[in-house]
Amino acid sequence: MPRFEDTTGREALLKASGLKTDRILDVGMGGCACMSFFLARLGFAVTGVDRSPHAVHVARQNARTKRLKGPFVARLANAHNLPFEDGAFYAVISFRSLHHIDAPRSVIREMFRVCRPGGMVLIADLNAVGRKIYKHEPDCDGLLRMIKRVAGRLSAYMTFENTRLDWFLACCKIIDPIQ
Ligand SMILES: C[S@@+](CC[C@H](N)C(=O)[O-])C[C@H]1O[C@@H](n2cnc3c(N)ncnc32)[C@H](O)[C@@H]1O
Q1: Which tens digit of pLDDT belongs to each residue from 118-165?
Q2: Does the residue 2 lie in any domain?
Q3: Is the torsion defined by CA of 150, 19, 87, 78 positive or negative?
Q4: How far is the CA of 97 from the centre of ligand 1 (A)?
Q5: Does residue 105 form part of some domain?
Q6: pTM over 0.70
Q7: 179 within some domain
Q8: CA 138 – CA 1 distance, rounded (Å)
Q9: Pocket flag, ligand 1, residue 32 (CB < 6 Å)
């Protein structure tokens, strides 16, 4: 995927979530850790996870060379089995990662598990324009339909928006699920 930075999608996602600063988990941060760094610079306490040791190494190196000021920790972890307790984070985010992850349905559930009740699960991935520009054609529309179904059952409400290159869902985790 060619790399050029587009912060408008990241800004829009954050605005829709209404988040100020808190503990946030970035799932599939990648070596660039672009979303993690974007949030850490705004004062969020960010934990980024990736299953690739190389990505984790590069993210840590980037944090040092870019002299990242905000609180940021990079950890090696598989999104299917996040090494955190239930409700450990106020918000859990995945930015352009889910189409890289096998069996993303269980990852959505795992993201909701580690998000605290009333917190936000934020998911963004490439829309048709983004796929064309990046010359990368994963089935993000099928992914979106699946996420809406799974997240819909776990959310008090969901906001959907399109930015220039991405769609995103901002989901508020339900507080009292009916057993
Ligand atoms: C395109 S990159 C992420 C981009 C980044 N989130 C951003 O803000 O631009 C996708 C990342 O997902 C990671 N990944 C794929 N499967 C994963 C899994 N099961 N658990 C954790 N990370 C995974 C890959 O190693 C890769 O670094």
Answers
A1: 999 999 999 999 999 888 888 888 999 999 999 999 999 999 999 889
A2: no
A3: positive
A4: 5
A5: yes
A6: yes
A7: no
A8: 12
A9: yes
Other beta carbons within 10 Å of 132: 12
Domain count, the chain: 1
Query: What confidence tens digit (pLDDT) does each residue in 25-69 have?
Result: 999 999 999 999 999 999 999 999 999 999 999 999 999 998 888
Q: Is 150 in the pocket of ligand 1 (CB under 6 A)?
A: no
Domain containing 65 — which CATH number?
A: 3.40.50.150
137 in a structural domain: yes
Q: What are phi and psi of 136, to 5 degrees?
A: -145, 120
> Is 100 near ligand 1, meaning CB less than 6 Å away?
yes
Q: List the domain range (segments joined by +) for residue 164.
A: 7-173
- Cβ of 130 closer than 6 Å to ligand 1, yes or no, is no
Residue 98 per-residue DSSP state: G
| Ligand 1 pocket mutation, candidates 82, 100, 125, criterion most atoms within 8 A of CB | 100
